[in-house]
Specification:
Number of domains: 2
Radius of gyration: 33 Å
Strand content: 5-15%
Bound molecules: zinc ion
Strand order of the largest sheet: 2-10-9
Distance between the termini: 108 Å
Largest sheet: 3 strands, parallel
Number of helices: 16
Shape: elongated
Order of helices and strands: HEHEHEEEEEEHHHEHEEHHEHHHHHHH
CATH superfamily of the largest domain: Isoleucyl-tRNA Synthetase, Domain 1
Length: about 450
């Protein structure tokens, strides 16, 4: 300013307000300096990529839009070189005289700034001195080719042909613009094909208030102490039942603890069921047929969810069935029969058979979500081999009996409510009419509620 003043070039001096970008961490102003860098062409591939992505199935389908929106928003090619110390080195040497870039033969990792170049003379001017590149790649430059690495691209043609494109890319919503997009771009550029058949995109885990976790905000929840306190099965079960696939979810220890109570409930149910023998066959009563019908419809629901990789569906279906139908109603309805109090041997065996059938199927349905506790119970009760070598159960029981579910739940709840209102214990005798529709279950219902005829 002094120099300008001396030369008489200053017209006026005034204060103005202007925006200055600052560093996210240190908060110091950022100075923008134009520099030469490497770019990977992407704009000219955008239309092709959009067409190609229709070959991949998205779970959930609505998250396809995240990728398409990103492709549509691209304005420049992808700058791939960085001035960082810890990253993948860019394998290029430059002629010290004419600057001609030289790329070494493929097949191994190069560190051009530290190694002797694998060339004798410059291919352009014949000079014999080279300068190694000291820049590194953007981190997504090599994480974007993981599907090529695992399918042995350029290393084993037969294996590659058999395994590429790979079945599934599971990943978070927050890296669609980076990991997913760059993988699609790079693999398409190299192979002409999409890298995956299916893309699975989960939501983001937020803090208790629904805010994104970040180091600078200090609201990051460390999963390790939670895993140590509640165990992997409870944590996994909580995670599966907390939100439908693709939706963001809040992480709260209270909710993890609450969701984990289902695992305790399951262990208690297994302990009860394990106190009875396992008959190979039995003449089923209507109550048994009813719970097996509900079981079949739960298996179907689980299959639908697993086919979509949406673990929310089986987690909720198994919990509701196990806790709210099997434990609350069937186990209570069949208890006197299972203990043989006032029932024939055949009826008792039918209860034992059904209890074990249902427990086995619950374990199989839940095994992908809570693998440890289900395997533990399975090996204790049913097999020397792991539950994870078993086939998924089929909905093999007649589902027509599910038409009674609503009435059964309503009737039982009514009886419990009346007894509670009258200050009676659940075992005390009560005079109440069993609805016509539920007559086929009356023997179990009478025993369960101690219903006496007037
Ligand atoms: Zn040269």
């Amino acid at each position: 300013i002094e120099d300008l003043n001396k030369m008489g070039l200053i017209v006026k001096i005034e204060d103005i307000m202007h925006r200055t970008p600052i560093c996210e961490r240190s908060k110091t102003p950022i100075e923008i300096i134009p520099m030469q860098d490497y770019y990977l062409k992407q704009l000219e591939f955008a239309e092709d990529l959009k067409k190609q992505t229709t070959k991949m199935k998205f779970h959930p389908e609505q998250h396809r839009k995240l990728l398409l929106d990103w492709i549509n928003s691209l304005k420049i090619d992808w700058p791939i070189s960085r001035r960082r110390y810890y990253a993948t080195e860019i394998p290029i040497w430059y002629c010290a005289r004419c600057g001609e870039p030289h790329v070494p033969p493929p097949g191994r990792y190069y560190r051009p700034w530290a190694e002797k170049p694998p060339f004798e003379r410059c291919k352009k001017c014949g000079h014999n001195e080279f300068i190694g590149e000291d820049k590194t790649f953007d981190t997504w430059m090599d994480s974007s080719i993981s599907p090529l690495f695992i399918t042995k691209y350029t290393r084993d043609a037969k294996f590659f042909k058999k395994t590429y494109p790979v079945t599934l890319r599971p990943q978070g919503k927050d890296i669609v613009r980076t990991w997913l997009y760059y993988t699609v771009l790079r693999c398409y550029q190299l192979t002409g094909k999409m890298p995956f058949k299916r893309v699975w995109i989960s939501g983001t885990g937020l803090d208790e208030k629904g805010e994104k976790m970040s180091k600078s905000k200090g609201n990051v929840i460390d999963p390790v102490p939670i895993l140590e306190k509640y165990g992997a099965d409870r944590f996994r079960f909580w995670c599966a039942q907390e939100s439908s696939l693709g939706e963001d979810f809040r992480i709260s220890e209270e909710r993890i603890e609450a969701a984990g109570r289902f695992i305790t409930k399951l262990v208690n149910i297994a302990r009860y069921v394990s106190s009875f023998p396992q008959p190979r066959r039995a003449a089923l009563t209507p109550t048994d047929k009813w719970i097996l019908a509900e079981l079949s419809s739960t298996v179907r629901r689980c299959l639908e969810g697993y086919k979509e990789f949406n673990f929310f569906i089986p987690a909720v279906a198994v919990r509701n069935f196990t806790w709210r139908i099997f434990a609350d109603h069937y186990i209570e309805m069949s208890k006197q029969r299972a203990y043989g109090r006032g029932f024939s041997e055949s009826e008792q065996r039918a209860a034992w058979f059904t209890l074990h059938q249902v427990l086995k199927t619950i374990l199989l349905m839940l095994a992908p979500i809570s693998p440890f506790v289900t395997d533990y119970i399975w090996r204790k009760l049913y097999s020397k081999k792991s539950i994870h070598t078993e086939k998924f159960p089929k909905p093999k029981w007649d589902r027509r009996y599910t038409k009674y579910t609503k009435e059964i739940i309503e009737f039982n709840s009514t009886v419990w409510k009346i007894k509670k209102e009258r200050g009676m214990s659940l075992k005390e005798p009560i005079e109440i009419e069993i609805p016509r529709k539920l007559r086929i279950f009356q023997k179990d219902l009478k025993a369960m509620h101690n219903i006496i005829s007037s």
